[in-house]
Amino acid sequence: MNIVLLSGGSGKRLWPLSNDIRSKQFIKIFKTRDGSYESMVQRIYRQIKAVDEDARITIATSRAQVSSIHNQLGSQVGISVEPCRRDTFPAIALASVYLSEVQGVNPEESVVVCPVDPYAEEEYFQALKELQQQADKGEANLILMGLQPTYPSEKYGYIIPADNKKVSRVLAFKEKPDAKTAGEYINNAGALWNGGVFSYKLGYMLRKVHEMIDFDDYNDLVRKFESLPKISFDYAVAEKEEHIQVMRFPGQWKDLGTWNTLTEAMEEHCVGNATMDDGCDNVHIVNELEIPILAMGLKDVVISASPDGILVSDKDQSSYIKPFVDKLEPQSMFAEKSWGSFRILDVGSESLTIKVTLKAGHGMNYHSHRNRDEVWIVIQGAGQAIVEGVTREIRTGDIVSMKAGSRHRVIACEELQLIEVQLGRDISKNDKQKY
Amino acid sequence: MNIVLLSGGSGKRLWPLSNDIRSKQFIKIFKTRDGSYESMVQRIYRQIKAVDEDARITIATSRAQVSSIHNQLGSQVGISVEPCRRDTFPAIALASVYLSEVQGVNPEESVVVCPVDPYAEEEYFQALKELQQQADKGEANLILMGLQPTYPSEKYGYIIPADNKKVSRVLAFKEKPDAKTAGEYINNAGALWNGGVFSYKLGYMLRKVHEMIDFDDYNDLVRKFESLPKISFDYAVAEKEEHIQVMRFPGQWKDLGTWNTLTEAMEEHCVGNATMDDGCDNVHIVNELEIPILAMGLKDVVISASPDGILVSDKDQSSYIKPFVDKLEPQSMFAEKSWGSFRILDVGSESLTIKVTLKAGHGMNYHSHRNRDEVWIVIQGAGQAIVEGVTREIRTGDIVSMKAGSRHRVIACEELQLIEVQLGRDISKNDKQKY
Question: What pLDDT, on a 0 to 100 scale, did the predictor assign at position B41?
Fold first, then answer.
């Protein structure tokens, strides 16, 4: 199975655990059988491999997520990197050309596209295989998955099928309706939710892309990507396609886009350092800070704490978080990188103190800063510091001092933890010259 | 007026803002007219001075609070330092001997004793003066303040007066009763709350202390303090005194011992970096962290965050916090000192990173550590570092490295901020040799 996972934007609705740098897909929140935690993207990857160990998985995403994907899934996954965000049609166009040119997938092979954030069980992944098999048959150009509605949601678009068979012709699409209209669609027309899951033969999509976008090859499409209009796949392709079918999926499926739905999928009420008293009812706590959280006498509340901030919200109310988060200071205090992670410890008027953790065998790029001096103090591990071309072995207790302008990098031989103090008047992450 | 403020223990009921090092009395939570914030101890000090600018104020407390008192009130306040905690009678005994021997107060002068944590207005402080004037008259040896009950509380002891005049003879004391019994005391006997406020002539108390404790002078009492039994003033003195009166106080008075009562006294719903949506009703947030708190759709909830932890509690439920806090890790991440403050930034397996802020003109004592190296990086300000007798001027960007065993201190010429990284296997605050 060729599968493209659309890994979307910043996920502000799951603040403070997701931010511009770390999206909700990468939060390790689901307990696995061995007691460790996995993220949405790790869970879906594991579930796909469980139904098809030969599945070719490609993640369509932005540059900002590449490090997190490599950290969490290793390098065996394909990544179609969008130079900027341009909605689902350009994303699927780029991923399709990537599959053809970079991965060498035959145009006769079918591709399944689905979002990275549904929370589902094995039956859903079996259904993805059936979707691909239906596309293989060639009865239609596009096969959509139709999710059996559990309530008249206002959050989804609806697909009106021609009949109530497992696979039906699509009669019409309906934009997100109000609850009353949604109820009528469901009761009178057997309408199904459109969860953005579909399958097609790669050759079909390549023809569509070439019809709509003027480009030569993959590299040319990457270059032109920023100039493409923001247009959804449904609007650009699905709603205009005459040879289109829908396949019913009656099983369990959750879209983990809000704290309310996310906590429903959590097996444990507390993740991280947290305590609640017996007076708490339907409370979930996700604490990524080292300090303890104590919850007492609360009902239907989600508490989430990260170095970015602390949310305490009534669960229903948590769906309306986005405008509040937009107003908060955007500074992100924690980030995962391909080489490890960093955490901001202190923000001074002319200083910034961070803790840097490098994974064994990894290093930062060789770089310098124009406007700041830096000091490293090794608090754990061993490695090499290279400053202005001079290599020095470093280990716990060593101090490395770098003046503004001097080129430097560090490589971890074993896991290496540094306290880095940045000193200067204009400390900015943009003040970085790579070599 | 001579007034002794009893400044009690660790105040775990106001966790995470109060801890073993910083008690609730020192939390800056009350907004003043000029827009800044003051603590309980600053507020009560200001209020006493407003009714009697010549008041001689003595705080009876433990060594752990001395730095905070000097930070918040300066050096004009007297402090009777208890070598350890031994309940209210030994505390009042020591404070009385301190007033006589250290402060030279005449035995004929009256003294008012009251707890440091009531939240009251000017009328209460006027009533303290009246209490002292009543003691001056010499009609009785001990004059208690009787607080007019507002409900049949189970939290207080009760005083039964002989009649309903403003000043009455005390007929009896009643230990903390259940609510039903408390109602009967109030309705049938005109009982008053015993808030631990009273006045006496210093000579009377000195005689009582010498009757009950065998000691020579103030220094001898300090030495013997640890051997004294833990006994309350009510039990040791008040309940046995025949010449005892109660003076009614019918005005506003709140005991700020729990989050529920404390938040009732707060003028603002948010202190610190906090946002709440319109769906929040009767919610208070006190945030001492730099990261934002967002509260949505909550009712009757208190949220408090400090470097020690995060509390989210239904207000009524918050009275039952103590056993939960007892179970939490006791590590305190922030402390005020006479020379400034420190905050723990990172706890490693063999390292500890802290931010130290020294006030201009202040310094640490000359000291050394047996088991850890230390590194200072100056991130703001200027001062002097003295290591093994060698003095060096330091300013922003300078690095000072100290091996285990080397004596060191730092003095701030202007406000000085340091990142201190401690490195070693057995990092402990007890590993400190002073010179």
Answer: 92
Q: Is B108 on the interface with A (CB under 8 A)?
A: no
pLDDT bin (cut points 50, 70, 90) of residue B35 is confident
Among residues B197, B188, B146, B198, which one has the least CA distance to residue B168? B146
Tokens of A197: 């899951």
CA distances from B232 to A179, B38, B61, B76, B86 (A): 66, 30, 15, 29, 9
Helix (H, G, I), strand (E, B) or coil at B174: strand
Cβ contact (<8 Å) for B333 and A298?
no
> How many Å is the Cα radius of gyration of chain A?
24
Residue A16: cis peptide before it, omega within 30 degrees of 0: yes
Bridge-based pairing of strands A244-249 and A142-147 is parallel
Residues in B 246-305 with any Cβ partner in A closer than 8 A = 275, 277, 279, 287, 289-298, 301, 303, 305
| Dihedral angle sign, alpha carbons of residues B313, B318, B323, B328 | positive
**B313 to A333: CB separation less than 8 angstroms, yes or no:** no
Amino acid letter at B331? Q
> What are the tokens at A54?
């030969």
* Secondary structure, 3-state, B205-226: HHHHHHHHCCCCCHHHHHHHHH
Per-residue pLDDT, averaged over A210-219, amounts to 95
ipTM over 0.90: no
Measured CA to CA, the distance from residue B406 to residue A139 in angstroms comes to 83
Is pTM, for the whole model, over 0.80?
no
DSSP A257-287: -SHHHHHHT-S-SEESSEEE-TT-BS-EEEE
CB atoms within 10 A of CB A205: 24
- Separation of alpha carbons B425 and B337, rounded Å: 26
- Distance from C-alpha of A91 to C-alpha of A80, rounded to nearest angstrom: 8
Specify the pLDDT at position A33: 84
Give strand pairing partners of A423: A351, A373
pLDDT category of residue B339 using cuts at 50, 70 and 90: confident
DSSP 3-state of B158? strand
Residue A52 C-alpha, separation from nearest chain B C-alpha, in angstroms = 42
Closest residue by Cα to residue B38 from B76, B71, B63, B8: B71
Phi and psi at B422, nearest 5°, equal -100, 135
Cβ(B132)–Cβ(B212) below 8 Å: no
Reported in sequence order, the residue ranges of B211-333 that DSSP labels E, i.e. its strands, are: 244-249, 253-255, 270-271, 274-276, 284-287, 293-296, 301-306, 309-314
Q: What mean pLDDT comes out for the span A287-293?
A: 89
Contact with chain A for residue B346, Cβ under 8 A: yes
Give the ranges where A190-276 is alpha helix by DSSP (H): 202-212, 218-224, 233-236, 259-264
For A120-166, the pLDDT digits (tens) are: 999 999 999 999 999 999 999 999 999 999 889 888 899 999 999 99
Tens of pLDDT, residue by residue over A377-391, are 999 999 999 999 999
Per the CB < 8 Å rule, is B313 touching A329?
no
In chain B, which residues have their Cβ closer than 8 Å to the Cβ of A419? Answer: 346, 351, 353, 419, 421
Distances (CA, A) of A327 to A324, B271, B345: 5, 18, 27
pLDDT, mean of residues B54-81: 90
